[in-house]
């Protein structure tokens, strides 16, 4: 007997959370602004990034792309370091507070009391 998945179940599990969609749009708008500030066409960015022009345009629309392609486009625009630095955990209050602590090799789920 074949396994059948309803269309509703497929849609429910593949929806992008609203916060992620907003961030994709914002990131796309920011990359688009950087491209225009640098007076580059989408084709020029695509060539420099080693991706297709449709990938650049899809990313700028907020439709998403692979993390590698996002980083390639950011590098082509000269903002890769800015993007990487934004994720530096030691640039946050929590990271600075715990900077001297040794990180665990692995994190295990806590047991319920």
Tell me about this structure.
The chain has helices at residues 7-14, 18-37, 42-49, 53-61, 67-76, 80-86, 93-97. It has 113 residues and is an all-alpha fold. It has one domain: Orthogonal Bundle (434 Repressor (Amino-terminal Domain)). The longest helix is centred in the N-terminal third of the chain and has 20 residues, at 18-37. It starts with 6 loop residues before the first helix and ends in a 16-residue tail after the last helix.
Q: How far do the termini sit from each other?
A: 43 Å
Per CATH, the class reads: Mainly Alpha
Tell me the series of helices and strands, N- to C-terminal.
HHHHHHH
Poorly predicted residue ranges? none
Q: According to CATH, what is the topology?
A: 434 Repressor (Amino-terminal Domain)
Q: Please, what is the oligomeric state?
A: single chain
Q: In angstroms, what is the radius of gyration?
A: 20 Å
How many helices in DSSP terms?
7
Helix content percent band: 55-70%
Structural class: mainly alpha
Shape: elongated
- Count the domains: 1
Which CATH architecture? Orthogonal Bundle
**Sheet with most strands:** none
Mean pLDDT rating? 88
Strand content: under 5%
CATH superfamily: lambda repressor-like DNA-binding domains
């Amino acid at each position: 007997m074949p396994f059948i998945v309803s269309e509703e179940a497929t849609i429910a599990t593949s929806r992008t959370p609203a916060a992620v969609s907003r961030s994709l749009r914002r990131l796309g708008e920011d990359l688009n602004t950087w491209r225009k500030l640098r007076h580059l066409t989408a084709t020029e960015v695509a060539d420099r990034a080693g991706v297709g022009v449709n990938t650049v345009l899809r990313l700028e629309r907020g439709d998403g792309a692979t993390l590698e392609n996002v980083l390639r486009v950011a590098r082509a625009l000269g903002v890769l370091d800015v993007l990487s630095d934004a994720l530096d955990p030691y640039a946050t209050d929590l990271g600075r507070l715990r900077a001297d602590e040794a990180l665990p090799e692995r994190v295990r789920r806590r047991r319920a009391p």
